[in-house]
Amino acid sequence: MKPAFRNDAYAKVTGAAKYTDDYTLPRMLHAVPLHAQTASARVISIDCSLALQSPGVLRIILAEDIPGSIKFGQIIKDYPTLAHKRICSTGDVLALVVAESRAQALAALPLIKVQLEELPAIFDPEQAMRKDAELINPEYGSNICNYHRVRTGDIQEGEEEAELIIEQDFSTSRIEHAYLEPESALAHLRSDGVMEVIGSMQHPFSTRRFVASTLGFELKDVEVRTVPIGGAFGGKDDTAALVCARAALCAYLLKRPVKLTYNREMSMRESYKRHPYRMQYRMGVKKDGSITFVKVRMVADGGAYCSVTPWVTWRSTVQCCGCYEVPNVHCDVYGVYTNNVFSGAFRGFGSPQVNFAIEQLVEIAAHKLGMDEIDFRRKNMVKQGSTTVTNQVLDTHKVSLQEVMDKVLSEIDYETKRAKCSFGDPKQDKWYGIGFAISYRGMSLGAEGVDFNSAILNVQPDGSVLLETGVHENGQGSESAMILIAAEELGLPVERIRYRLPSTSNIPDGGTTVASRGTLLGGGATTKAARILKGIIAETLLKEYDLSAERFEKGQILTLEGQTICTWEKAIALCYSKQVYPYAFGVFQAPRVSWDEETGHGDAYFTWVYGCQAVELEVDPKTMKVTLLNLVAAHDVGKAINPAMVKGQFYGGLAMGAGYGLFEEVPLADGGVIPTNLHQYKLMRATDLPEMTAIIVENPDPTSPSKAKGIGEPTLEITAPAIANAIYRATNKRYVDQPLKLRP
Amino acid sequence: MIIVNGNKYKIEPALLDKKLSEWLREDLFLTGVKIGCEIGVCGSCTVLVNNQAKRSCKMLVKDAVGHEITTIEGISGEDGTLHPLQQAFMDAGAIQCGFCTPGMVLSALALLLQNHQPTRSEIRQALKGNICRCTGYQQIVDAVEMAARIMYPRIK
């Protein structure tokens, strides 16, 4: 394989790359947050007098000091920049201490005296859903943050047709994103009146809205710039944006640059987690293996703030039956407010939970029918032209589910190895198991939201190119992918293209870089911009040479037949001499999607991806310790723009998915996060993982201008159920709660 | 006195009790030393102390007195030429967000200075103290293997 391309690799490997906390500004101050110590309380008073006398402390900022809105949110504006009168979660911030040094600010924290009246709290979502429950967010009027459903076919008919019915509950836990770099923000009010912010966040435009809302500014008066960030995985939206807004608030009030850097303790206490789910499934099958119905009720604990709970649970709703055709479906999904630390976006976004359940459920069903689990899946899986449970016909792209499954099963030699599984054999001192799981995934935002993106190509007089898109570099290599797409379209070496330092003031709001949409949407916009640019250049060349420029290859511009017209540089010089700017603005608008909340029907996503993962493992019967032996994954990516980075997404997703399956969870006590730092939150280390095999499957997608689709999320959404299925074949026991805690 | 990346620094008494990681970042502006947990479990702040990989957040400046420290900024050539290990990290696709990269490279370097032909399992063992949340480690292990072959070619 050719060496990986990354435009930021040199800076990152030499230590030159500057992340937010690596920046300092003249006269810069430091802020630190004071967190609530309880999940539900009324604030009686906050006495700052002693803390204000502490050396170096300049000011302590409370909710009353906020010039704009105290609360903001992406969907429901319930998330306070600083808690005002009422505490709803242990992650709430009551005050910000601003001092000359960070050490001075930290030293003053314990000197703030907070008087509270503790109030009853609700930590169980089922309890919160009761009609008589206290309201967590009284302004919203219900503890049910959102409700989605699917009603397809006739559930009664499905029940009657079923020859076997399986009922099974599943649960999943809270997960910490554990991005390696904790939140950080640096803000300063520029002399032109613009609040300029850099921060460790993954959505500059959302961050700009948070900052503008807190300060009462117009969007034009806030500029959020992108610097390298140390991982996000969906986790650097709401909380990270609010950290930026708080830094901006301090900078605005003190008229000096302010840095607000979280330590790991603050980050783990306050940042949102993956939604824990409780899922109650009922599935009917016929003896021939066909699924007649699925009835499911899911409850997701959204915690104290809405964040993106309605969107996360919507994906779970659309994908409630996994990648299978089911004629009769009755699905109810609730996102619920509690006083727990809140839940939000996390790589996978509502699919890992559902897949954990469904990919075990189909195996339970196959087993009870005495049917091969491969045949059961083959019979029921979506195929070309299939109709999904939400009545979407899959005909806009290649449905490659069978292809990815066959590739993985063949690579790992599944059927041969399955015969060697231990099934808890007491005579063996190591139990061996193999398992797999499959999925489909709707790409990008779908009917969750407005879905478009733009790119600017600005060719300089010397022929070098400045590129910029509405996609954000979270560490995944999005800038590199955009450069490669532009380079291929324009027939230029990557060295001639620079990704311009992005800012919210340079390019239109392209939405958030989530939902595995970066390459799809940003790449689409880049492709479109490149085509417009080539059109501009071709028009200029036609006037000059009376030749039609059709091919841009290796720095040359050619006719369709291969006649060289001129070099790229000459064409660009010609454009400038003719008063034509070689500049293009490209837009990719996602194809139309639809959704009906009443029926849960619609073309939920404009295209889909397909994946399969398999795992081999060993269980020690004495300790019940699981050792992973092998991980194999195949995912259809449409087209691999940067194969080494695509593989990096595979490996990283598998590792994160395996941690999710085996041990990751954030336990709470009275709504607060128990682990205080990474010593109490186990993450996959190099020694915990086996060698992995990544199989890139490419079926160029007609709906994607660059032919590429997403890969960030598919790679971790089925690792946990593949492990659960392997553990079943090793131990002969089904574990239906994630993480999979094996009992002797 | 402490030697950092070949430069000698006299230490004022007031600095002796400062965390080594903070001194490197704040006083020497060597911000390739990253801070991920401050309790020595993530490995982001790894530096070499006399060619041994150490977590600089768990050391005070006084612990480093009389020793030679190497940070990520100190392993490439003065003209910007990359160390073979740095080049291998780039070529193998071992870099994503990059926050673990300086610590990873230094832990790997400490290994290769001791063991010129490590197995993949020895490489994993040597990197155990460095968390990476992005890559699943596979391409990092590839990179270290690749670098070992370049740094210490096998004599036939």
What's the quick description here?
The complex is a heterodimer of chains A (744) and B (156). With 744 residues, chain A is an alpha+beta fold.
Unreliable stretches covering 5 or more consecutive residues of chain B: none
Note the beta-strand portion of chain A.
Answer: 15-25%
Q: Determine Rg of chain B (CA atoms, Å).
A: 15 Å
What would you call the structural class of chain B?
A: alpha+beta
CATH topology of the largest domain in chain B: Ubiquitin-like (UB roll)
Q: What integer value in Å does the Rg of chain A equal?
A: 27 Å
Sheet having the most strands of chain A = 7 strands, mixed
**How many distinct beta strands of chain B?**
5
Number of strands of chain A: 30
Straight-line distance between termini of chain A: 45 Å
Order of helices and strands of chain B: EEHEEHEHHHH
**Assigned CATH architecture of the domain at 452-589 in chain A:** 2-Layer Sandwich
Shape of chain A: globular
What does this structure look like?
The complex is a heterodimer of chains A (744) and B (156). Chain A is an alpha+beta fold and 744 residues long. Chain A has a domain at 452-589: Aldehyde oxidase/xanthine dehydrogenase, molybdopterin binding domain (Aldehyde Oxidoreductase, domain 4, 2-Layer Sandwich), CATH 3.30.365.10. Helix content of chain A is 27%, strand content 25%. Chain A contains 18 helices and 30 strands. In chain A, the strands form eight sheets. A seven-stranded mixed beta sheet of chain A has the order 3-7-1-14-11-12-13. A five-stranded mixed beta sheet of chain A has the order 9-17-16-15-10. Chain A has a four-stranded mixed beta sheet with strand order 18-26-27-30, sandwiched between helices. In chain A, helix 10 (351-369) runs parallel beside helix 18 (719-731) and helix 14 (478-490) runs parallel beside helix 15. Chain A is globular, with a radius of gyration of 27 Å. Chain B has 156 residues and is an alpha+beta fold. Chain B has two domains: 2-74, Ubiquitin-like (UB roll) (Roll), CATH 3.10.20.30; 84-151, [2Fe-2S]-binding domain (DNA polymerase, domain 1, Orthogonal Bundle), CATH 1.10.150.120. Helices cover 35% and strands 11% of the residues of chain B. Chain B has helices at residues 20-27, 61-64, 84-91, 101-114, 120-126, 138-151, and strands at 2-4, 7-9, 46-49, 52-55, 68-70. In chain B, strands 2-1-5-3-4 form a five-stranded mixed beta sheet, with helices on one face. The longest helix of chain B is centred in the C-terminal third of the chain and has 14 residues, at 101-114. The model of chain B has no long low-confidence stretch (mean pLDDT 97). The interface between A and B is large, with 57 and 53 residues.
